[in-house]
Amino acid sequence: MSPAKIYVLRYGHRPQRDKRVTTHALLVARAFGANGFILGDVVDEKIKEAFEKTVKIWGGRLHFEMGVDSFKYAQEWRRHGFIVHLTMYGLPVDSVIDEIRGRGSDMLIVIGASKVPRFFYEVADYNVAVGNQPHSEIAALAIFLDRYYQGRELYFEHEGGRLRIIPHERGKKVVPKHSFSPLDAETR
């Protein structure tokens, strides 16, 4: 059984330093099957613009909020769901992913930008590591969601949007969504 909803809480975003990284975390959350993305503690209109542009062009129904108090959001989340904190100090993803997948309630995935306060290690039901070496929170999020969905997220279809990429062995092929046919895909 899988959770009803998966949200990603981005903690510690620094607008002048992290806009590309946070935008990429948002893109991964959307593309890899999250239902929502929460930008905690700060309002960054550039991130919101990137989100709106992506959804307008490529589709999807990702809930987006920003400026919420991360600590309060996590505490409230615990009333109806559970929390996974992605950290290189946690338990190996492969040792806990089946248990997480079987929980059957809403899941909040916490990823940090700056040094993460001890609060998140304590409030989390699972501190999960995708490797125990320094790495990107974007990579950790992508690998975690891939393990969670067992690769099925690579084939999710997003509703709405104007464009669709046609798989192609060489080059690029992007077409308006309404004109796509599975026969357009180039086969190997």
UniProtKB/TrEMBL annotation:
Biological process terms in GO annotation: tRNA nucleoside ribose methylation
Cell compartments where the protein resides: Cytoplasm
Described purpose of this protein according to its UniProt entry: Specifically catalyzes the AdoMet-dependent 2'-O-ribose methylation of cytidine at position 56 in tRNAs.
Highest taxon above the source species: Archaea
One cellular component (GO) term of this entry: cytoplasm
Broad class of enzyme this protein falls into: transferase
Name listed for the protein in its UniProt record: tRNA (cytidine(56)-2'-O)-methyltransferase
UniProt entry tagged with the keyword Signal: no
Family per similarity comment: Belongs to the aTrm56 family.
Subunit structure: Homodimer.
